Amino acid sequence: MPWRGLQLNKHFGSGSAGLGASNIVMNIPFLDLKSQNAALLPEIEPVIKEAILNAAFIGGENVSSFEEEFAAFCDTKFCVGVGSGTDALRLALLACGIKSGDEVITVPNTFVATTEAISQAGGRVVFVDVEPNTYNIDIERMEEKITGRTKAIIPVHLYGQCADMDPIMELARKYDLFVLEDACQAHGALYKGRKAGSLGDIGAFSFYPGKNLGACGEAGAVTTDDPDIAEKIRMLRDHGQSKKYYHEIEGYNGRLDAIQAAILRIKLKKLPDWVNKRRTNAALYNELLNECQAIVIPYEHDWSASAFHLYVVRLKGREIIQKKLLEKGISTGLHYPVPLHLQTAYKFLDHQKGDFPVAETASDEILSLPMYPELTAKQVSFVAESVKDIVTAQVHV
Ligand SMILES: Cc1ncc(COP(=O)(O)O)c(C=O)c1O
């Protein structure tokens, strides 16, 4: 497993005395796409120019080559490029034959696209609470939610760490259910040495700009080993046609843009190194934050190598801490502040506060710290020391 047992950057060391001093300000954005794009511009500019000069915008060599390369990266037989991660989830469910009244199990602490895809495919969202340590689906609570109408499970690999897929697949085989991995945050994550996107029947990826592999616009992909599902998604993304103007089913306009595919091919080559850098940054955060009792650092199962799309800690008094971090120049995020079962859009599911207590408590206490490959050890140290200083001061108020 290439990303296990990473060493911290020893020459920098773990000590960062003074960096967290209360009057120092260091502007650290939550995400720094500008640096990544600037570094890649010499490679990206020519492919955009070539596409424009050749008027090669839809389908073509870059789309098919990216699909082959991303399938190889994920260790799957097929990859079908689509317009977004939301398209990937929705078209995957449609390809599995989800129809009106079918139930699909997922978690309440995900981005809304997961459940939008279920409803828009005609299914009914059934939530299962999550584990308190990883915030991924709680296998122990899953079987009781399976009914005669359940057709699929969508485990979400939240923050870049895979859900515990072996028991999920076991249950799915027992009850004859499809498993669609929401791998939109998990490009390059490993589960027992196997890649996210190759673990269920289908994997759905987003290449939204801020993702571990991000396009310069909207893009997504579906991965699978099943030739029939791959073929069905190819038709669904392209108005249900297998041949131009011969429509076997009603489909969608859900194709992967050719310029985005060309950019993704360039970025895909960097992805293993970027995941390594994320893991190195996470290891440094862990080392620096672990000693502070009031901060819960991310939990990683020993079978997991998270792709660390996000580095999420848990603490009390989040709003004040966020505000004080901002005063020091540090931007943070919340993923996600309101679980989906308590959102207005899902009132029709008739859930109450208290229905999914683990997800609810987590949503009140989680805080996403800056995390990207370009983040330097000095920046990680400044963030970690600042969080510790602020949290310690809060505890002693
Ligand atoms: C867990 C999860 N699922 C689905 C999506 C949807 O992807 P997209 O924004 O590309 O439609 C995202 C991206 O934001 C996500 O984080």
Task: Describe the protein's topology.
Blueprint (H helix, E strand, L loop, with lengths): L32 H21 L7 H14 L3 E5 L2 H11 L7 E4 L6 H8 L3 E4 L22 E4 L11 H11 L2 E5 L7 E2 L2 E2 L6 E5 L13 E5 L2 H10 L4 E3 L2 E2 L10 H32 L14 E2 L5 E4 L3 H10 L29 H9 E4 L7 H19 L2
Parallel strand pairs: 2-3, 2-4, 4-5, 5-8
Antiparallel strand pairs: 1-9, 6-7, 6-12, 8-9, 10-11, 13-14
Helix pairs in contact: 1-7, 2-7, 3-4, 3-6, 7-10
Pyridoxal-5'-phosphate binds next to α3 and α4.
The biggest sheet, with number of strands, parallel, antiparallel or mixed sense and barrel status, is:
7 strands, mixed
Uncertain segments are 1-18
Number of helix segments?
A: 10
Strand percentage: 5-15%
* DSSP E strands, number: 14
**Radius of gyration computed on alpha carbons:** 21 Å
Task: Please indicate the count of domains.
Answer: 2
Tell me the distance between the termini. 45 Å
Strands of the widest sheet, in order across it, are 1-9-8-5-4-2-3
Overall mean confidence score, pLDDT? 94
Instruction: Please give the share of residues in helix.
Output: 25-40%
Structural class: alpha/beta
CATH architecture of the largest domain: 3-Layer(aba) Sandwich
State the fourth-level CATH superfamily of the largest domain: Type I PLP-dependent aspartate aminotransferase-like (Major domain)
Bound small molecules, by name, code or SMILES, are:
pyridoxal-5'-phosphate
